[in-house]
């Protein structure tokens, strides 16, 4: 009888499901283009997401140029500025972070870490990527239509999103909404795959409470996304109808520029509810995979088990559940019934408790550990700093009355960039440094990694920390320029210029990372199958990078959790999940290919 | 070693920056000092946690650096510690939430007898309507808006005739008494915010929203739009003048009522018609 997640067991349940038949590639096209292997799909997702993410990075430079040096760059008009912030926000949240965490890491890691040959619906998984690519292309197309992309802010609030006076209120906003609809369709195909694979395709012995936290994070985030995205889908469809057919779902009677418009009876606030019913879980769709991945990075590189594994799992589940009843904390000053404030402030602050416990457990994992300050570990530790910083400013904004003066100021911008921009992106970098050897067989260069890490971490912190204080001062977000405002001192301008310069530097530093990837692909140090001496199944594959089907002739069998580091009595300081209990003390077969591990006792 | 020291520097630097920052609240000019107090409480509670977590992390980085001959301690769970942390965190959260909700209750409860003033937002300007001698704002409807009636006041409502209208000029407020702001927009979302007042609320077309405050300090302050409302968002500015009751009354005398503005518009258009009808010489 297994009592706790960390108990080892030699008992292995019999296989319940037949091995799946894989569609092996027949040609170059089915191997590299229309490929059904989740690992290839993962790389396709990642490249597309990073490519569009670079567009968002350049857009952020443009807006920082305007904020830091107003009236300097004649090519940035107010229209352009509002288009930049809108597209930057939407790309980062949806097309980069969501796609990269779930489509990228989800596809690569789920089958490998649960001990499956592939996703359970490989064909649909392939379609998922191509529909995502279509969504990205539609989004990019909106830059080239008359009027340009929408400049309604990434929240796309009606009525202004579809009215004159807002950039891209014609074709731009419609393309944005269509692109979002396609993204959601594509994501749903992938998301169903991730959920069913985790639930149905785990190898023998891989109980839910033995799953690496990476999988728990991605799994729960996918569940959230499957439940939350439909609200955005509905909102996008209704707003498209308002824009194209002149319906009035979100449009009340309006007089604009002295002209009576043919709308009436709709509710702008209804859209905000739909948007944030999606939008708040979206924060956790990005955060939960980051939570999961960072748990594994910390554990592996601290050579110690994650502290309080079961609490970590339940915290992920509870945070996921609570994230559906906090959405209106984005709407405290929206004009919704003010009595909602009591409920949503309470739920929002309650969510801080499981979140804080996760932070404690990450740091407690370091206690009496044996910490290797590798590049992935540095990124993971930097995540803790930025996440704690961004998390506690969430306690300001979630506490309804504190939100009143701070809402729509630079404080909000600083908060969400720190907590769901900088922090998850640090995890993404850490994860790439961590799993790159598995994906390519080569290690990323450490020297370049250090330069990239320190500039990115300290730079990003220096950008966003001071912006909070501009928010206290009362500097609004989404202002093309402040011009003369009596209460804003000259020093605020100096600060903005400083922040803009740092932003440019941090942006350029990403080229080091891209170069490192290209260079290491060709000349990186050979890593072997398990360079970090990690326990989870992806490191135990017979081939590196793993072939189609992942595990050779026999699937691995799991005897323990993924955090068997520093186990007393074991020969090595780590025990792979698939090492038979009889071999632990001697270490024979440690790190050996899974297929060669001893057969389970029947 | 260096990495841990940098982490310590980040924690200490953040605290130093906080206390040295020249950017802080503008001096308050309303009764909502409670909000500032809640923020100070939040700063203390969260600040302690922030510093403690990072210093603990940095200590571990120094103390438990990798050594070939060492193994990590194996203690997967510690129920007692986890419970303690849960309870302490919950207390900390309650310490922020309870004062917050207490103040929010004041924020959503408008005091009896608060003066009502309407603010109308449109791209990209502010207008203001005062209830006039009868102390009651007349009913209005967006459908009634025209060049002669930019507020859409119902001409058949006697309560609207004496409403005082201010367009394209500063808003004036008397000091010392509670004021309920009724907020309307006739086109897109806007948000009425004066940073010195600390209080704000979105203006939503198709609805009337509100908040209240008591101005406590005379002066002229910036009104800014705080909800993205199109390309002119950043130039949607205005001024509010907070002054003694006597000065406010004097100012009010000089403003035009709805009835007066209608009469003026009629005579203007009569003149215009007369000019048009004049036969060519």
Features:
heterodimer; A: mainly alpha; Cytochrome C Oxidase, Chain A; two-stranded antiparallel ribbon; 59% helix; B: 281 residues; alpha+beta; Immunoglobulin-like; 2 domains; 40% helix
Descriptive account of the structure:
The complex is a heterodimer of chains A (602) and B (281). Chain A is mainly alpha-helical and 602 residues long. Among the domains of chain A are: 36-204, Cytochrome c oxidase-like, subunit I domain (Cytochrome C Oxidase, Chain A); 528-597, no CATH class. Helices cover 59% and strands 1% of the residues of chain A. Chain A has helices at residues 28-32, 38-68, 78-114, 122-141, 171-200, 213-244, 268-302, 309-322, 340-350, 352-365, 375-398, 400-406, 410-440, 446-473, 490-523; strands at 255-256, 259-260. In chain A, a hairpin with a 2-residue loop joins strand 1 and strand 2. In chain A, helix 2 runs antiparallel to helix 3, helix 8 (309-322) packs antiparallel against helix 10 (352-365) and helix 11 runs parallel beside helix 14 (446-473). The radius of gyration of chain A is 25 Å and the shape is globular. The model of chain A is unreliable at 590-602 (pLDDT under 50). Chain B folds into 2 domains: 2-18 and 26-64 and 79-108, no CATH class; 115-271, Immunoglobulin-like (Sandwich). Chain B is 40% helix and 21% strand. Chain B has 6 helices and 11 strands. Chain B is elongated and about 105 Å long. Chains A and B meet through helix 3, strand 1, helix 7, helix 8 and helix 9 of A and helix 1, helix 2, helix 3, strand 7 and strand 9 of B.
Oligomer: heterodimer
Overall average residue pLDDT of chain B: 93
CATH class of the domain at 36-204 in chain A: Mainly Alpha
- CATH 2nd-level architecture of the domain at 36-204 in chain A: Up-down Bundle
| Tally of separate helices of chain A | 15
CATH class of the largest domain in chain B equals Mainly Beta
Please state how the strands of the largest beta sheet of chain B are arranged side by side.
Answer: 8-5-1-2-3-11
Identify the strand order in the major beta sheet of chain A.
Answer: 1-2
Greatest interface: A-B, 114 and 100 residues
CATH superfamily of the domain at 36-204 in chain A: Cytochrome c oxidase-like, subunit I domain
Structural class of chain B: alpha+beta
Major beta sheet summary of chain B: 6 strands, mixed
What percent of the residues of chain A sit in helical stretches (DSSP H or I)? 55-70%
SSE string of chain A, helices as H and strands as E: HHHHHHEEHHHHHHHHH
Distance between the termini of chain B: 97 Å
The domain tally of chain B reads: 2
CATH topology of the largest domain in chain B: Immunoglobulin-like
The percentage helix of chain B is: 40-55%
- Level-2 CATH architecture of the largest domain in chain B: Sandwich
Give the number of DSSP strands of chain B.
11
Query: Percent of residues of chain A in beta strands?
Result: under 5%
